[in-house]
Amino acid sequence: MPYTTVTSEHIQQFSDIVGSDNILQGEGHCWPYGYDNSRRQNTPQLVLFPRHAEHIQKIVSLCYQYKIPLTARGRGTGTTGATVPIYGGIILSSERMVEIIKIDPANRLMVVQPGVTNQQVQDAAAQYGFFWGPDPTSAAFCSVGGNLAYNSAGPRAVKYGTTRDNVLGLSVVSGQGELLKCGVSTTKGVVGYDLTRLIIGSEGTLGVITEAILKLTPLPETKRTMQAIYSDMGSAAAAVSRIMAQPMTPCALEFIDHKAIEMVREYSDAQLPEQAGALLMIEADGPEQGINAAIEAIQEAASGPGLVAFTAAESKEQVAALWATRKALSPSLRKVAPKKINEDVVVPVSHMAELITGLQQLAQKHDIIIVNFGHAGNGNIHVNLLVNPDDPDEMTRAHACLDEVFSLVLALDGTISGEHGVGMEKQAFVGREINPATLIIMKQIKQVFDPYNILNPDKMFPLTHSTNSSPEPENNNADI
Hints:
Largest sheet: 7 strands, antiparallel
Distance between the termini: 30 Å
Strand order of the largest sheet: 15-12-14-13-17-18-16
Helix content: 25-40%
CATH topology of the domain at 100-218: Uridine Diphospho-n-acetylenolpyruvylglucosamine Reductase, domain 3
Radius of gyration: 23 Å
Shape: globular
Number of helices: 16
CATH architecture of the domain at 100-218: 2-Layer Sandwich
C-alpha cells in the first residue's frame, strides 16, 4: 500500500491538534529526528511533540485516515535503527510527555508518561525508598517509552528482571487511533490476554504508548562489590553457573574476556595479574544484616579451578578500584579501531564458554578483532567487532563474520538480541530464529493492531517486499 505524502493541509490539521509550538517542519529542522544511535538516517516530513494521550490519539487517527506513516521516538538512544522513519512521514516524539502522573508507595507503583527518563523515575522512586528494576547504561538520557519499546534491561536484570517484569499495565493508541488499556494495577491479574507483555518490546509497531504503570521495588539497605579473576573463560563461565545456582542472586554479574583484558592492560593504567584470562565483576545487595553471609556464599561459588584472585571491596575507594578495569574498556576499544559493530546476543549461561571459544575462532577465520563483555549472569554477551569503516575489504569480512556469529548463537540455543531489539539492523536474521508459522502469526497480530501498516512500517520482520518506493536509509557505519 503506497503511503500519502504530508501536505500543507495535513500540517495545519496536525498543528491544530498539538499547537504550532509543538511541531517541526522543513528538512533542516526535521533532520535530527531522522536517526538514532545506529547512525542510519532518513528525514521525516514532520515532527510532532504531543503532550497528552488525547494528542496522540488524534494524531494517529489522522494518520490512519490519510495513510501517513508514523514512527514513535523517545530520545534516539537505540542502536538498531528502530526509530528511523524509512518512508519519511511523521516522527511522533514523546520528549515533551514528561509527567510523573502518580507515585503510590503503598501499592509499590508509579504511573508515568513515556517521555520521562529512566533516571527521573529512579530519582522520584528513591524519595519513597524504591527503585525501578531496568537500568540501561543510557539511564540518564533514555526515556521510559524507549525502555518499553525495546524491553531494555541492563546489569540489574539478572536479579530484578527486564522491563517486561517491571511493568503492570499500559495505555496504548493502536494504529486505528483507538485507546487501549491493558494490564492491571495489581501484582496479580489474569483477565484476558497479556497485551502488556506483547506490546513491550514491539518497537512501536503495534501501538504508541501514552502511559505506563511501573512496578517499584524497595531499595536494598546495602550493596557490596566483588571481583573474581580467572585464568581462562571456561573457568569463569563455570563459576557463573555455580554463582547463579546458589540462593543469593547477585544484583549484577558482569564479565570481560581475555581480548578485552589485553586491551585494557595495553591502553590503560588498570592493574591486572599477568595470568588473567577472564574477569567477573559481581555486586550483591540486600539487608545489612545478611550481606556478609551473601558475600561468603558468592565467594565459595566463585572459587574453583582457574580462579586467580577474588577481592571484596570494603570501601568506596576499593569499589572504584575494582570497577576501574571495566571502565577502562570502552576508551581502550576506541584506541584500537575507529568503529565497533556491537551486538547483544544471549546464550544459556552453560554455553557461554562455547560461545566465547567460537567467537575467537571466527575472529581468526575472518581476521577481525572481536572483544566480548556483558551481563554474564543471564548470558547476555556484547560482541564487539572492531573495524575501520573506510576499509571496504574489512567491512566485507566483518559482515561475513557477523553472519556466522548469529549462526553460532542460534546453534547454542541462544537469541540474536537480548535488549537492543531488532529494528532494521537484525531484520535479515530474524527468520533464522523464528520459524515461518510463528512469523505468520506475528504478522497477523500486527495487522490487527495496525491494519494500514502505518506504525513504524517495515521494521522487526524480514522484508519480502517494499511497502513503498522510499530509498533505503543512509547508514553512516557507526556502532550497530
